[in-house]
Every structure is written in C-alpha cells, then in structure tokens.
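Any chance you could type out a protein's amino acid sequence plus the matching backbone structure tokens because I've never seen that pairing?

——
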Amino acid sequence: MNKMKKVSNTESLLLFLKDWMLVIGIITGISAYLVYLRIPSIHEYGTIIEASIHTIQPILLFLMLFISFCRIDPRQLVIKPWQIRNLSVQVLSFLLFASAVIWGIHSQCKAAEWIVRNRLLFETGMLCMICPTATSCAVVAGRLGGDIAQVVMYTIIINLTVALIVPLTVPLLYPDSEVTFITSFVRILSKVFPLLILPCLTAWAVRAFMPRFHHWVSLHTNLAFYLWSIALTLAVTIGTRAIVQSHCNILLLVGMALVSLFCCMFQFRIGGYIGRDYGCTVEGSQTLGQKNTVFGIWMGYTFWDPLLSVSGAMYNIWHNIRNTIQLYRHDHNSRTSSR
C-alpha cells in the first residue's frame, strides 16, 4: 500500500513539473540573477558564471535538436506551403520596420524625426519579427501534438534566411558602421551552423552507423523536455541580466515591452491562422511565435543597438508565458479526455 502511494506521489510530482515547468524555469531564472545581485561576495565569480552559461547553453540546444532529428526520417524534411507563408510574414514585417528606420535616417520631414526619436521601438519590432524559430520549438510542438519534422524544417529555413537578410540591412541601418555584409553573414552563419546543421548531420550519422543508440534516443524523447527546461532557465537568467543592466528610461522600457508583446501575440495568432488552412495549426503558430531569443539578444547587441538585447529578453518572457498556458491546457484536456 505504501509502495503504491509512493508511486502515486512520484507520478503526481512529475505531472506537476510537466504542467508548470515553464513557470518554474521563469521564476528560477529571474530569481537566480536577482540573488546573484544581492550577494556581493560572489560577484568576483561573475565572469566564470557567465562563461559557464555561454558554454552550457549551446550544448543543451545542440542536444535538443539532435534528439529531434533522431526522431525524424530525413525524407520527411520537405518544404510545405504554410512554411513559405510564415516566412513571408517574418521577412516582410522585418523589412517594413527596417524601411521605416532607413527612411527616417535619410529624410528631413517631421514624421522622419519622430521615427528617429523612437528608433529603438521600430528596431524592437525588427528584432522580434525576424528572430528565428527557437531550437526548442520542436520539443514544445511535439508535446502539443504537432509534426516535429515540419517544425524542424521551418527552423532550418528561417535560420538560413536570417543569415542572409539581416546582413543585407545592417549597412543601411548603420551606414557609419564598419560592419559589412560579408562579416555579418559569416558571424551569423558561424552561430547557425554548430547549433542547427551540425546536430542534423550528427543525427543522420548516428541513424546510419549506430542504430541501437539511435533507437535508444528515439525512445527517450522526454529527455529533450528536461534539457529544454534547463536551457529555458538559463535563457531567462540572461534575459533578466539584459533588462537589469540596460539602465533604460522607464518609458522606453514600457514601450519596448508593449512592442515585443504585440509582436509575440501577432505571430502566434497569424501563424495559427496560416497553419490552420493546411491542418498545421500547432506547427504554424509555434514556429512563428516561439523564438530563439538568446540568438535575438546576440543579434541585437552585435549588429544593432546593444539596448535591443532588452527586447529579446522581454519577448522571451512573453512567449514562455504563452507556451505555459498552451501546454497546461493541452495536458489538462488530454488527461480529462482519457478518463
């Protein structure tokens, strides 16, 4: 009897963790950085802690995508019509924001002056719209019942697109900068390759030459969820650090928060509408709404204004709140219908 009760308690704990892992990750990530700020004695280890996070996070992202690729037959990776439409939404929205900023820089009218004064808000929109799909999107979409292969395919498409389109606009947005198309392209590609292409090649090599290990990985798909939980906590910690260290004007922070919230809601909704026409509501919504915000933060302070890292941090909070609600509803409905 006690053994059965112990098993039941363990199952209840696992269900609780699955339902609220995002909330736990967000609270833990925020708390970890705030606790660090309150303990001066550990500040001297800040550089080591930061270096450790920057080392651990890519490894977690690599492993998550590797597990996702192990579940996919390479022949499943084909481009779908909904993916083209999602891509068009991201690219055209990004170009719309970018064009407004470029026009504001070179024009002398009052509207242009207003755009220049609020440039960070427009660039927040740029960043939130073009930021590529998160590596962990396949994990979340899989739990929501989506097709992992289609999600991974879109993740590849949008990352390669970002590597091309962002470098094209950097010289126009910052004409005084020494950053060229080639240097931007190489820097982004150097980020994309090890975290996107390499896991794909590794998974296919394992499928071909290590079938037993490949089978074991395919059976332990929940491992990706737990890796994602750790990566989420680290991402929120980085985001909290970006917000705290930004020293932004409060009105600017509120404006960036509202723009990032609008972009988040818009992309989840429009992606769902696009995907619904093809029977891929989950895939369309998640690939457009769930972002690789760590990559977005890096793009912000590397190619645009360092303060844009705050926008990525805020978007990180919004899309994780949305995912928490989605996962809770999905899991709750699944358990209710199975009774």
Q: What stands out?
A: Residues 2-38 form the longest helix (37 residues). The radius of gyration is 21 Å.
